[in-house]
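FYI - complex with pyridoxal-5'-phosphate, inputs then prediction.
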Amino acid sequence: MKFSTKAVHAGQEPEPTTGAVMTPVFLTSTYVQEELGKHKGYEYSRVSNPTRTALEKNIAALENASEGMAFASGMASIDAIFRTLNPGDHIIVSNDVYGGTYRIAKMILENYGLQFDFIDTTVLDNVINVRKPNTKMIFIETPTNPTMSITDLRAIAQFAKQYKLISVVDNTFATPYLQQPIDFGIDVVMHSVTKYLNGHSDMLGGFVATNNKQIAERLRFFQKAIGAIMSPFDAWLCLRGTKTLAVRMRQHCESAGIIAEWLTKQKKIQKVNYPGLKTHPQYDLAKKQMRGFGGMISFDLGSLNNAKKFLKNVKICSLAESLGGVETLISHPATMTHASVPKTDRIKNGVTDGLVRISVGIEDVEDIIDDLKYALSKI
Ligand SMILES: *Cc1c(COP(=O)(O)O)cnc(C)c1O
């Protein structure tokens, strides 16, 4: 089956007792057992729930993975992935990852003995040089948030195999429609399904997909032991979202391409970061490992003051955290998503005070451009 067919059908068996075509929301905490030790595969909803199972099979199929685990949020899934390791283990992480990934590593997990190095993973030599005898995992984001830099998936997968490390990709920005890291040899893919996979900004969720049965078993044990699982209702909402992922992504990509080109022609904008622009430093790599360039763009207005004025004057673009919904969202990474990153690190990673990030929605692109044009005129 090809991608869009899987998006609609994978894991979506008609419900056996009624024939309901759409998987119902199984709002139940527990399941009756016929006799001691005999049940239909479900015992308690922290362990598993049929609506969650349907979503787990669906997204795993989209990532070409055999195993899928849905969590309460993207952060819950990142926490679970890192904690498959042990105190004293070292993890290499891309330096401009999602702010929350940095926060959980530095402010929580380091206290439990995990060690992290945040480096520019777009340069393979950096990765090789920072590896230590106790390195057990490499966790990358590509494209990164919010500067859209691209890391070579195949090179990272090879590096990880050579040194027996677990390779993890946060695939939230690209989605499996644009990029399937497992096909490049990556071990584990995670998502904030809050973003594109759900696509409608009405739930929070996280996901881990892998072909590694050992890791999957450990993560399922975490779901049961810790309970940071996705609720049946959120799983049901997300199942509505994944069915239209392909059509939404095509529109996000098309509109973002047009807007990125338009932004490069505006005199008040100093720099536009979009992997689909030929000026992007890893344009060729993006073309090689992605089927499209996505819906995320960031651009630099030069100063905090300019960014403030601009963001005060947008109307269709809503000033809000998050991304990946049908509506266009605009944000200011330095004070919003990346506020927990120390200023010197932040600037070094290109998250300047004037940087604005836009998640291009599926509205008419002319209306989005008019909105941006008006806000620019107010600077
Ligand atoms: C939002 C996001 C996360 C965190 O996910 P939540 O669902 O908000 O917990 C992780 N990584 C990336 C790239 C994100 O955009």
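The first helix runs from residue 3 to 9. Residues 73-75, 98, 100, 141, 145, 170, 172-173, 192, 194-195, 204, 206 surround pyridoxal-5'-phosphate (CB under 6 Å).
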